[in-house]
Amino acid sequence: MIIKSVEPHLLSCPLPQPVCYDFHGGRRTVFKRDALVVAVRGEKGVVGFGPAAASEEMAKVIVEGIAPLLVGNHLCDPAGFISLATSKLGSEALAAAGAVEVALYDLWGKLEGCSVTEFLGGRIQETVCCYGSAGMYQSAESYAQEAAAVCELGFSAYKYRPALGPEEDLRTVELMRQAVGPHVGLCLDAHGWWRMGDKSYDASTIETLARDIAPFGITWLEEPLPLDDRAAYADLKAKGIVPIAAGEHEHDLAGFKCLVESGSVDIAQADVSHHGGFSGVAEIIRLCESNEVAFAFHNWGTALETVVDALIGSCFRRETARWLEYPQYAHRDPRVMYPFPLSDELVPEMPVPEKGELSLPDGPGLGITVDESVFEKYPYLPGPWSIFELESPPTKLALSGDHALPWAENSD
After folding, report:
1. What is the number of helices (H) and of strands (E) in the chain?
2. What is the predicted pLDDT for the residue at 135?
3. Predicted pLDDT at 405
4. CATH number of 324's domain
5. What is the pLDDT of residues 105-122, one digit of tens each?
6. Which of 359, 376, 401 is the last residue of a domain?
7. Does residue 177 share a domain with residue 45?
8. One domain, residues 250 and 354
9. What is the mean pLDDT of the chain?
């Protein structure tokens, strides 16, 4: 089969109205959610799909750097594609190459008539364990109500983003524990929400708050400290107060080796879209296995990203590949967050978790059908998808492109 084209489809799903959220130290306005889907087209209409980090720069790398490596060539086993692409384009092309690798595996599986998991070591788990993820910029009472709503759906853990100040963050955990009972896990994603200009939490405040929330049975505390301060992470983890998680903002395997081998985390987090496709995430999970560190997927994109992460996760033992983040959006349940209908319209027959367990599709390739009409329905809207306004020092920051990229320069 000859590869005819490699196409990055950059999409935007605008909110019905911009949503303004107040937090401790400022305000955030959300306008839209972006997505990027790679389509690799072969002969006779066969197409492979992969999710990518949603940014204009990512689309440019795919068009200008990766497509010329593939178009006009015969489709072959994708196992060596990441090495080929990064040797030609540099390590900064890892995420883009990973997204294309997933699409190549989807195409290869369709050609061979088997699931991509057969190329990735074979399934060990037939379902993957999901935790419900939502929760940002609410009162303590509203967080507790949302936690209860998410757990009504059968998830055994709930993740939210604390942003109320230390005293209210503690009260939020107390109310959530009352709302969900003793057996549901609570995960606190502190990235960004505890670093809010002059109101940012220092290491002492973070340690005190960790000790205060520990009696409530916290599953993990995620990225509570500046991301490049390995020593501070190792120090906090060594104290054994609550499990510490991080990793979604690492860029390559070397970063994960430093994170895991330095004893900085109890749980490492990564996803296929940002960390080198199937092969990149497989390397990270094997690194976790060898260092006896748990692994949890970061997953904040579309249903396509969810199924792709689930497929590679299924090829590892649950003792290591423990959790898959499952975002809950308001188009599914009005009691949570904002809507993101593009996510589910893209994969209309996506499996839905039952009692917190996501079944895996069995068809060839990724085993799902991507609705390409979504590409026309949700054209890309240039500009930031959200704006942060900090009170002190007065600062306006635009978050452009993918959610996992650093804040952009001042948007004025």
Report:
1. 13, 14
2. 84
3. 45
4. 3.20.20.120
5. 999 999 999 999 999 999
6. 359
7. no
8. yes
9. 93
Same domain, 290 and 325: yes
User: Among the three residues 92, 115, 138, which one is the final residue of a domain in this structure?
Assistant: 115
Domain count, the chain: 2
In this structure, what token pair is assigned to residue 394? 């007065």
- Cβ neighbour number for residue 395 with a 10 Å cutoff: 15
Nearest 10 degrees: CA dihedral of 246, 250, 255, 261?
10
Show Cβ contacts of residue 303 under 8 Å, excluding neighbours closer than 6 positions. Answer: 343, 344, 346, 347, 350
**CB count in 10 Å sphere of residue 73:** 10
Contact at 8 Å (CB) between 23 and 42?
Answer: no
Tokens 């301060």, residue? 229
318 within some domain: yes
Find the mean pLDDT for residues 185-198: 86
Domain identity same for 237 and 101: no
pLDDT at position 401, please?
Answer: 66
Looking at the fold, whether 124 and 193 belong to one and the same domain comes out as yes
Structural contact between residues 301 and 51, judged by C-beta atoms closer than 8 angstroms: yes
CA–chain centroid gap for 404, Å, is 8
pLDDT digits (tens, 9 = 90+) for 242-272: 999 999 989 899 999 999 999 999 999 999 9
Asked, for residue 96, whether it belongs to a domain, the answer is yes
Identify residue 272 by its one-letter amino acid code: V
Hey, is 248 helix, strand or coil? coil
Q: Model pTM greater than 0.85?
A: yes
Q: Is 74 helix (H, G, I), strand (E, B) or coil?
A: strand
Please report the pLDDT score of residue 407 as a whole number.
Answer: 47
Instruction: Note whether 293 and 151 are same-domain residues.
Output: yes
State the Cα–Cα distance between residues 4 and 213, nearest whole angstrom: 55
Whether 191 maps to a domain, the answer reads: yes
Phi and psi (nearest 5°) for 397? -125, 130
82 contacts 88 by C-beta, under 8 angstroms: no
Task: Say how far apart CA 172 and CA 136 lie, in whole Å.
Answer: 12
- Measured CA to CA in angstroms, residue 123 lies from 14, 284, 306, 362, 364 at distances of 37, 17, 16, 11, 14
Instruction: Report the alpha-carbon distance of residue 97 to residue 106 in Å, rounded.
Output: 14
Range of the domain at 81: 5-115
144 domain residue, yes or no: yes
